[in-house]
Structure formats: structure tokens, C-alpha cells
């Protein structure tokens, strides 16, 4: 379903996707409905007045958690004015509340039959995504005098939707109705409450911290105001920067969710609609992007990922001791092991990135206690890199799924089926090793050496890790370098043959520090050269490669998150101009998406399109796209922790103007950073 005709509101992993009238009429393949914990709790929610469907005048996207719809019966024309106004105001905050208001503009009284059709298919989100709705349990409906209960049970697995109203209603198996009499200019109001229940063994309710009816909006509004107040303030002469930053902060707030085990603490869900849950890679990379602005997300993410770290060998879940999870799901297919996501561990980058985040978080926060608390989990992650990830015995991290039915084939961030190929377009056999993951492993060992020496009181282990990192760097620069193209191969096959295509992954290598300095300049030239850089951003795959497609999911599109880490990597190696070029392109693109960068957009050349072309099924909002402007701000201002202080070395794009970032939190307390872009000498006029 296209996004232009749908309205989305969310709070953590509870969200509503509906039509612009507020109605929901879901099909098995459309992600419309009220969803929570990977289950659709409402698939039908249709309002009629006197048996007539309503038409939209407009809707207000009030906050991420609320929307308002202005409706009329029939079609309003220039000659016949509508005699009724219907307003639907909706809030989602764990549960779902709808305020219904009807105004009579007629000169005479009216009698109305107001009806809401309500139903649920209790579809698992995986079933919606795969367009297969195959329910093996029992759907039931219970009509009570003051409420309607929709339910689904399959063994101990039970989900319920309970609907009630502040006004007297008549409930039946298909919904509920009101009989309303309105005098001229009179108003009628009803508040409708929809509670979602996830019942586990023993009748325990597994809901995710639902708020009481009537308090959702105030609680959410207060929480959002505090979230924004606690974050640094950004002011800019170029309005796009400040407005995009604020949009990102609000979307980050919307994507926070709190699993039961966290006791109210939150971490970022990956993206709406398909990925409103915990992802190892996505959550870690989002935390790395947002550390200078929302450091609290990092601590929560590290703790929950550590608590769910792999502890055994489980082929179904692709689990190994020490491995950090890929994805956690709470729906029916995971509960009955029809999918392995309970949790699933099929990711090769989350484990080294876990150590990278722990070190980066300490550098910013000075939170030594967490580093000591997670020492054993960090050591287990390092053992996984050495003992379980090297499937070929060449000292690299490889992947090959053991769950051949429902596991992921590609376990790197470019996880679509055709994202890894040779230059002729053919796909390599498994196991596969992608270049950026070797960089993450190098970075993890370098950072873990610092943690071992400074906080774990183990200088011998630190020396060992530094030796291993140096050997990995030397070996990598020998085996992965494509001589005739002067860049690093995307991947190796198990025989050591290079997948010698030019891809955006080389920018991640700069970020990790695994690139020998004398080769960095070649990579920088590629990254801002015409084959990779479109003018809006760096393409995932270079133009001219066999599988290049400007709207191919990982084969030519532009991923904002990818670009943010590429810019960070360029800055690390001293290529500030190139980093600023990429930041400028992505921030320009953000203005065309009202400050909300999508998961991906088309890799067409900028001179070909007046605006960036959105990828058809991109998630929005998506966590690491939301984090992108924040990391670009850090990169442009050159913000780096250094010996307990915050170093600032700005390099803004030409024409950017002045940027202020105030109250940046860290071990130094709160400090301010200022920068001014250079003038565009071509546009000074006389």
C-alpha cells in the first residue's frame, strides 16, 4: 500500500495505520490496522452515520501519537453545504482511544444512527508481510452489555481487543451503535476506548506498560516535552537543519518502546510498519548515531542485548554462545516456532557492534559501572568473533544460515537475497564474508583493548587484542583490495575469490579504521565520485555494476543511515570536505520528506530528478534514518570525546551558515558547540 493515502500514529511498538477518513479496512496483505506486539488487534474500524460512509475534508497530524480527522457525510459541493461535521480525534499510547464529536449545523433537529463496525483478524505481522493469513486457532467474539470483546486463542496463546464507550451504546457481534438526537447547533461527544491484551500462560497479561484510559494523551504529551527539553538545542541560520533535527527527535521519541524485562526503560524499535521491535544491529547503530543527543538509549540497549546474548548452539535460531541477537518478536508465529524470532540471532555484525557501542558510550558518558557490569558479555562477544564466526578458518567473520527454512540468507546489513554478487552479477556460494563486518571486528578489538586495559584490569588481554587487530588489518588490506579498481571488494566467497564490485560498504571501512592510510584517498574519491554519489547521497551500489538499479533495495538506492556512517568515516580519515558534501546532499533530501528521512530513496542522479524519489515500500519513520541527521550534525561539527573533554572541530558545507548545538551532555557535564559554514562565493551578488 502506498504511504500517501494512509495516516500513521504510533507509540513504541503500538501503532495505527488507517485511511485519511480514520477508517480501517484491512486485507491480509495490507499493514493497515491497530497493531501491538506484532499482532493486528483491529482489522476493521469503519464509521457510518445513518448507514452512510463519511468523506474526508482534512486531517491533522497533531503529534506522533495522535491525529484528528474532519469528516462530512456525502460529498461537500459548492452548492450544497454539509449539515453535519464529524470529528474523530485519536490517541495511541499502548492502548487506543478515539474521541468522536458530531455537530449539527442544520436549522432543525436531526436523528442519527451512528455506527462503528469493528473486527479483528489477529494477524501476526509476519503473516501480513508475507501476505499469508493462515490462522490455526479460534477467533471469538463476546458481546457484553457495556463492551465488545474480540479474541483469538491458540493453546496458551491468547490475544484480546476490548472495546467500550463513555456513552451508552448497543453492542453486537459486528461492532456497536448509538442513537443520537441533536438540536440545531448542538454537539454530541463519545469517547471510545480500545484495550489490547496479550495473555500468556497462567493468564498473565503481557501488555507493554499500557496507560490508564483518559491519561494517554497527557502522559504522552508530558513525556514528549521532557524528551525534547532534555536533548541539546539546535539553532541554525539554514532552517532545514533545526527543523530536521526536531523532526528526528520527535520520531525517536515515537519509536521508543519498553519490553517487559526493562521495567519501563526504553530502546529504539527499528521502523514502521514492519520492524516495530528490537533489532540488534538497528538499535546499536541508532544509538551510535544519537549518543551526543539521547545517550540514555544506549545504556538501555546495551543492557537488554546483553541479557539476551546467545548462550548455546541452536540451529533453528542460528544461535551461538556470545552472539548478539538480530531480532525479537512477540507474535503468534514466533510463539509457536513457525518463525525463529524468539529471539533470532542471524546477524554477523551486531556482535562486534555491541562492543563498539559499549566503548563509545563510555567515552561519552564516563559510565565505568556499565563497562564493568558487561565485562563477561563483552568477552563472550569477542570469543564469538574468534571461535564461532570464522567458518572458513581464514581469520574473518563469515556467515551461513543453519536454519535453511526460515533463517536469513544474507546476515549483513544488506540482507536482501541479491545484495552480494560478483562483478558479472552472479551470486557467490556460502559461507560469505562482507567487508564492513571485518572492519567492525577490527574496531571491536581495538576498543575492547582499551576497556580491558583501563577498566577490566587485564593488560595482557589488551595487548593480545591489539596484536590480533593489527594482524587483521594487515591481512584484510592484502586480501580484499581490488587492484584494478583501487577499492575494497564487497565480499569474499569461501575460496577467497573477491566479489569485486564497488559499493557503499567501503565507507564503513573508513569509519572502523581498518583502512591503511595510503588507501583512504582512493576510497574518498570513489565515495563522492559520479558512480557512487548521486548528488543526494552515496548509492549502495555503484552505477555501472551488473546489478545496479537506482530503486534496487540494496543495489543502487541511497540509504540515509549508510551515508551518515560514511560521512563519519571520511571525517575520521581527514576528508572533511567529502564528508560535508555527503551531509549536504542528505540534509537537502530531508527537506523533501518534511525532515523525516525514509529508510531508502532512489539512486537517480540529482540532475535527473527535482526531488529525491522515495523507495516504494520504505519504512517511515525508521530508527537509523531518524538518527542520520544527528550523526551528520556530530560529523559536521567534528564532535569527539577526547581525554574527558569534548573536542569540537567544525567543517560545514559551503553556504550552510551558522549552527549552534547547546547543552551537549557527557562526562564533561553540558557544553555548547558553534560552527559557521563558508560563504558560497558564486552567490554573493554584487
TrEMBL record:
InterPro entries the UniProt entry points to: 6-hairpin_glycosidase_sf, 6hp_glycosidase-like_sf, GDE_N_bis, MGH1-like_GH
Residue ranges of every copy of the Mannosylglycerate hydrolase MGH1-like glycoside hydrolase domain listed in the record: 320-591
Species this protein is from: Micromonospora trifolii
Protein name from the UniProt record: Amylo-alpha-1,6-glucosidase
Domain Putative glycogen debranching enzyme N-terminal: 10-192
Lineage: Bacteria, Bacillati, Actinomycetota, Actinomycetes, Micromonosporales
Amino acid at each position: 500500500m502506498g504511504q500517501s493515502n494512509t495516516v500513521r500514529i504510533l507509540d513504541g511498538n503500538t501503532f495505527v495505520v488507517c485511511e485519511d477518513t480514520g477508517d480501517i479496512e484491512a486485507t491480509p496483505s495490507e499493514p493497515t490496522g491497530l497493531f501491538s506486539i506484532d499482532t493486528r488487534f483491529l482489522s476493521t474500524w469503519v464509521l457510518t452515520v445513518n448507514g452512510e460512509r463519511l468523506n474526508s475534508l482534512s486531517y491533522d497530524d497533531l503529534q506522533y501519537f495522535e491525529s484528528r480527522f474532519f469528516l462530512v457525510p456525502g460529498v461537500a459541493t459548492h452548492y450544497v453545504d454539509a449539515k453535519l461535521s464529524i470529528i474523530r480525534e485519536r490517541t495511541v499510547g499502548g492502548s487506543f482511544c478515539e474521541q468522536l464529536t458530531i455537530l449539527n449545523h442544520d436549522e432543525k433537529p436531526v436523528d442519527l444512527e451512528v455506527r462503528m463496525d469493528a473486527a479483528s483478524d489477529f494477524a501476526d505481522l509476519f503473516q501480513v508481510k508475507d501476505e499469508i493469513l493462515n490462522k490455526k486457532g479460534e477467533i471469538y467474539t463476546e458481546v457484553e452489555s457495556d463492551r465488545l470483546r474480540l479474541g483469538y486463542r491458540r493453546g496458551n496463546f491468547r490475544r484480546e481487543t476490548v472495546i467500550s464507550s463513555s456513552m451508552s451504546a448497543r453492542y453486537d457481534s459486528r461492532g456497536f451503535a448509538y442513537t443520537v438526537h441533536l438540536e440545531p447547533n448542538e454537539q454530541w461527544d463519545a469517547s471510545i476506548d480500545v484495550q489490547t491484551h496479550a495473555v500468556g500462560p497462567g493468564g498473565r497479561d503481557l501488555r507493554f506498560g499500557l496507560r490508564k484510559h483518559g491519561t494517554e494523551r497527557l502522559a504522552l504529551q508530558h513525556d514528549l516535552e521532557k524528551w525534547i527539553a532534555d536533548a541539546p538545542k539546535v539553532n541554525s541560520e539554514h532552517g532545514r537543519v533545526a527543523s530536521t533535527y526536531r523532526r528526528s527527535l520527535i520520531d525517536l521519541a515515537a519509536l521508543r518502546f519498553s519490553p517487559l524485562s526493562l521495567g519501563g526503560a526504553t530502546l529504539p524499535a527499528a521502523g514502521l510498519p514492519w520492524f516495530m521491535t528490537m533489532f540488534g544491529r538497528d538499535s546499536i547503530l541508532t544509538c551510535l548515531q544519537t549518543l551526543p543527543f539521547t545517550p540514555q538509549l544506549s545504556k538501555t540497549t546495551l543492557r537488554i542485548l546483553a541479557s539476551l546474548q546467545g548462550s548455546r548452539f541452536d540451529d533453528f535460531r542460528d544461535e551461538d554462545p556470545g552472539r548478539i541477537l538480530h531480532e525479537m518478536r512477540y507474535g503468534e508465529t514466533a510463539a509457536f516456532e513457525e518463525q525463529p524470532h524468539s529471539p533470532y540471532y542471524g546477524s554477523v555484525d551486531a556482535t562486534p557492534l555491541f562492543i563498539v557501542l559499549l566503548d563509545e558510550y563510555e567515552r561519552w558518558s564516563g559510565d565505568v559501572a556499565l563497562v564493568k557490569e558487561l565485562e563477561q558479555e563483552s568477552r563472550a562477544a569477542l570469543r564469538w568473533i574468534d571461535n564461532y564466526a570464522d567458518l572458513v578458518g581464514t581469520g574473518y567473520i563469515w556467515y551461513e544460515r543453519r536454519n535453511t527454512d526460515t533463517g536469513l540468507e544474507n546476515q549483513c546489513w544488506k540482507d536482501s537475497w541479491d545484495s552480494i554478487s560478483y562483478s558479472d552479477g552472479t551470486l557467490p556460494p556460502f559461507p560469505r564474508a562482507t567487508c564492513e563486518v571485518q572492519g567492525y571486528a577490527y574496531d571491536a578489538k581495538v576498543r575492547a583493548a582499551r576497556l580491558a586495559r583501563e577498566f577490566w584490569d587485564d593488560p595482557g588481554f589488551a595487548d593480545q587484542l591489539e596484536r590480533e587487530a593489527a594482524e587483521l588489518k594487515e591481512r584484510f588490506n592484502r586480501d580484499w583490495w581490488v587492484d584494478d579498481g583501487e577499492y575494497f571488494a564487497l565480499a569474499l566467497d569461501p575460496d577467497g575469490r573477491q566479489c569485486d564490485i564497488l559499493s557503499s560498504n567501503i565507507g564503513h571501512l573508513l569509519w572502523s579504521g581498518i583502512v591503511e592510510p595510503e588507501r583512504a584517498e582512493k576510497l574518498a574519491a570513489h565515495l563522492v565520485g559520479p558512480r557512487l554519489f548521486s548528488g543526494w547521497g552515496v548509492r549502495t551500489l555503484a552505477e555501472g555494476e551488473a546489478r545496479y538499479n537506482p530503486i534496487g533495495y540494496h543495489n543502487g538506492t541511497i540509504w540515509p543511515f549508510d551515508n551518515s556512517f560514511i560521512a563519519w568515516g571520511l571525517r575520521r580519515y581527514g576528508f572533511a570536505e567529502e564528508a560535508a558534501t555527503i551531509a549536504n546532499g542528505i540534509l537537502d533530501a530531508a527537506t523533501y520528506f518534511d525532515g523525516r528521512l525514509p529508510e531508502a530513496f532512489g539512486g537517480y542522479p540529482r540532475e535527473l530528478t527535482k526531488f529525491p524519489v522515495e523507495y516504494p515500500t520504505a519504512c517511515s519513520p525508521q530508527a537509523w534514518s531518524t538518527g542520520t541527521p544527528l550523526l551528520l550534525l556530530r560529523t559536521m561539527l567534528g564532535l569527539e570525546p577526547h581525554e574527558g573533554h569534548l573536542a569540537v572541530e567544525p567543517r560545514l558545507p559551503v553556504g550552510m551558515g551558522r549552527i549552534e548545538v547547546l547543552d551537549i551532555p557527557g562526562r564533561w557535564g553540558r557544553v555548547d558547540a558553534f560552527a559557521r559554514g563558508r560563504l558560497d562565493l558564486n552567490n554573493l551578488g554584487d
